[in-house]
Amino acid sequence: GGTIGMVGGGQLGRMFAMAASRMGYRVIVFCESIDEPAPQVAHGCVTGKLDDKKAVDQFASQCDVITLEFENIPAETIAECQRFAPTYPSADVLATAQDRLLEKTTLQKSGLPVAPFAEVTDLDSLETASAKVGFPLILKTVRSGYDGKGQHRIGSIDDAKQVDWASCSQWVAEKLIPFDREVSVIVARTRDGRTSTFPVFENDHVNHILDVTMVPASIGDDLTRRANQIAIGAAVALDVVGLLCVEMFVCGESDGSESDGSGEVLINEVAPRPHNSGHLTIEGCHTSQFEQHVRAVCGLPLGDTSLVSNAAAMANLLGDLWPADGSSPPWNRVYDVPGVSLHLYGKQQAKRGRKMGHLTCVSQDRDTAVVQVKQAREQCKSG
Ligand code: ATP
Ligand code: MG
Ligand code: MG
């Protein structure tokens, strides 16, 4: 038992609280509003601005251990939490994960493969950076982007002239990687340095937002080993305690499916927390990413991450699925598709591109799992 503090009130905090609660812990959430997804399922909630020291103290003083569900929390807030209780991941990990440049530099210095990148502050430095990484490139804000927000695909200097350079002072230019597929590995790491990885997930993005995750990833044994090594290497390099999700590009495979040893893995970015690509672990693995997160930060033995069946798939439910009249999609139709589980996050307002829930299917066969979640989602389109 004991009380776990969760900074952040979104769906990741919500699913963490559900897992922790089942394991006998109390969860207190610290977020801005009681209407967010996590407080609805937690034992307690302290609301306030995340940089309000009084609110932070009120929250942290009730906790035995503190963790978080998103990386854009003021570093001072985490430092303040650390005065009251062990806080994982630490303020140092957070500072790195909040800053794409620092993150890439730190990973690169540890010998881990990242896509070629360069710092950019304005149109002139973009020109210099393009000499290093080449066109086309992807321009990203150094701080606070998610779901592809603040990103531009730049094919030429003319494109770069269209960027609102005044909107942000620090950017990073990345080589556009012609990847064959995107994968992610979630690694759990304990206070005493034990690690455990989940199976490699294969991720399809639509409009820079995760759409579908599938497991097993269709990459060969060599690339699988490589992806796992990179993920563990990143968790050690950053000294993460808790979860780290490492998003990677796989390129240069000789053919679409089974590898003959060719191919390369590059890190796109990391997130020191549960991750959307790990949602299928709730039904798909013996231990979910959320339970593993609890185990890691509470100093328990790590759980078995293997799949309960051969395959699983997850499809996100975005706000786009909601009818304009404010009603809900016809969820009952989901239950017509055998083996599909529905998760809704309890968000009050559906907006375009907003993650409102997800569907999971566990199956003997990966293609079946993918077809089932997509079919179930299709049936939830009203009309
Ligand atoms: P989130 O944190 O929600 O995953 P984000 O805003 O931090 O999103 P990224 O993960 O950096 O964004 O990029 C989103 C997606 O855009 C990637 O998953 C990938 O599909 C594409 N993308 C990003 N960078 C590159 C790149 N250098 N080359 C090719 N595709 C890219
Ligand atoms: Mg990101
Ligand atoms: Mg990403």
From TrEMBL:
InterPro entries: ATP-grasp, ATP-grasp_carboxylate-amine, ATP_grasp_subdomain_1, PreATP-grasp_dom_sf, PurK, PurK_C, PurT/PurK_preATP-grasp, Rudment_hybrid_motif. Pathway: Purine metabolism; IMP biosynthesis via de novo pathway; 5-amino-1-(5-phospho-D-ribosyl)imidazole-4-carboxylate from 5-amino-1-(5-phospho-D-ribosyl)imidazole (N5-CAIR route): step 1/2. Keywords: ATP-binding, Ligase, Nucleotide-binding, Purine biosynthesis. Belongs to the PurK/PurT family. It catalyses: 5-amino-1-(5-phospho-beta-D-ribosyl)imidazole + hydrogencarbonate + ATP = 5-carboxyamino-1-(5-phospho-D-ribosyl)imidazole + ADP + phosphate + 2 H(+). The lineage of its organism: Bacteria, Pseudomonadati, Planctomycetota, Planctomycetia, Pirellulales. GO terms for cellular component: cytosol. One of its GO terms (biological process) is 'de novo' IMP biosynthetic process. ATP binds at residues 100, 140, 145-151, 174-177, 182, 205, 268-269. Catalyzes the ATP-dependent conversion of 5-aminoimidazole ribonucleotide (AIR) and HCO(3)- to N5-carboxyaminoimidazole ribonucleotide (N5-CAIR). Pfam families: ATP-grasp, PurK_C, RS_preATP-grasp-like. One of its GO terms (molecular function) is 5-(carboxyamino)imidazole ribonucleotide synthase activity. Residues 104-298 form the ATP-grasp domain. Coiled coil: none annotated. SUPFAM superfamilies: Glutathione synthetase ATP-binding domain-like, PreATP-grasp domain, Rudiment single hybrid motif. It comes from the Bacteria. Its EC number is 6.3.4.18. This is N5-carboxyaminoimidazole ribonucleotide synthase. It is an enzyme of class 6 (ligase). Homodimer.
